[in-house]
Each structure stands twice: as C-alpha cells, then as structure tokens.
Amino acid sequence: MSKGITNLQVKKPDTLIQFLLDKMGGMSRTSVKQMLSLREVSVNGTVQTRHDYALNEGDKVTIQPQKAANEFRHPKLKIIYEDENLVVVEKKNGLLTVATNEASREVTCLSLLKNYYKQRSSRSGVYVVHRLDRETSGVLVFAKTQELQHYMRDYWREIVKERTYIAVAEGEMPEKEGTITTWLTEDKKNAVVYSSPYDDGGKIAVTHYKTLRSNGSYSLLQLNLETGRTNQIRVHLASKGHPVVGDRKYGHAATATPAIDRLALHAQTLSFIHPVTEQVVRFESAVPKEFNKVF
Questions:
Q1: What pTM was computed for the model?
Q2: Number of domains into which the chain is organized
Q3: CA 226 to chain centre
Q4: What is the mean predicted confidence (pLDDT) over 263-282?
C-alpha cells in the first residue's frame, strides 16, 4: 500500500468520528469531518464518509491521505481512490474511457492517467478493467498491472457486489420496479446493439430497475446490472419505450431537454472485492444536479 497509511483496530463499540478524535492526536472535529468528506477513511476495506457510522469491536479503520489524488487536475476526471494496485476515478460525461482505435489521439481517461503517472516518474501502469460510454458519467476502476487487469476482467461478475446506475428516462415505466431481460447482439461494424425478447443467439442481459421519482413526462430510475453488456441500460430502456433522456442513438433524434443537455445516465455506485486485500470496497459518485431539474 502507499506511504502514509494508518491502520487502527477498534477495541470497543463507538461512532467513527469519536473514534478518530480519540486516535488522531488532537485533530479538530472539523479536520476529521474534512478527512471523511475527502474519502480518506475506510472501515473493513469500505470507504466511509458518515461521521456517525457505528463501529464494532474488531473493526479495522484505515486512514489513507489522498495527497497523490489531489495532485491530479482535470475538469473531466477526478481520482477518488488510489493504492498500489488500483486507481478509481470519477468521469464526467463527454470523455472516452479509452480510444476507439490505436491511431486516435483523442484525450481519454486512459491517456490522462498514463500521462499523470509518467510525469510523476511512477512505475505504475494503467490498464482498463471496464468502460463507460463517452456520454455516461460516474465511477470507473483501472488496474495498475496487467495481471490484475486480466484477473478482474475474468472474474468481474464474481467480484462485483453492487453496480448501480441512475438514469432519467422518458415517460413512466409500466411498473415502479422490475427486471428487464433480453438477449443483446452487438453489430460492431455499425456500432449499435440490438435487443431480442427471446434467445436469438445473442448474449443474455439482465437489468433490475426501481423508480425513484416520476412526473409523468420523466422518471428518475435506479438501475442495478446483473450483467454488463455494451450499452445494456440504454438498449433495455429503449426496448421498453422509455429511452434515456439525451440518447440520440437508441432514443429520439432530439430527446434532450433544456434542463439536461446530455445523456442522462450516471454510474453512481461500484462495490467489489479488492483483488489483493480481498476486502469489499465501495465507491460512490454524486448524482449530477441536472438530473433533478426536470422534476
């Protein structure tokens, strides 16, 4: 792990903020809260930001200053966690995860991170584990070795515990919550994915959804992926007649609203078993403010 990490063992039940105040050598309450808001504290491998989080005897509290993360500056990309094995980022919409072809010189998450580590004279590599569409924002994880990249890709379904997206969809879903299951076929030549309600030789795709808010014209949906196919959420919602707002590929030609001038899809939460520590880690990105402007 990186330098400056502090590991503490909980001896008796306590709240997280009181435990930190007792253990951190006279830090003020404000400083401890700032440390929590910067996501520098984890409990049993999971980042915690709540100051009133209940600790139990035997819990392990880890403090990892995010100095290195704060050195990275880019309007479309933010490092929210880093250790010797992984780097977790928050991507804004409009930025590709990785170039679509090797000849492309377009700025991507991958190129930005590679340049960052090169400038730091770091031996860390950066390898893509999974991707988000250009216009989708939210949490992304990269591995620092090819070995970890291959492991995480091969066992992605087994190690991921939670993968939650937030979307604004057109209209109202027929049921407040449910599951969409179809078979998806990717046409790589035309860069489009087709959906079938029956097994036509495509890959099965399963999306669980729940309506959080609705006003008749739009619905704010929470979506949990059981599978992670290309364009899965966008294709599934479009197949139900309720495409993601701003989806010009699977929705309508002018589906964006003045309030949301983008694809209204955000990767909010990613929780997985850390490939080295074997602890469950959880990362969350705030829902873009514009998503609530239509309600």
A1: 0.75
A2: 3
A3: 15
A4: 92
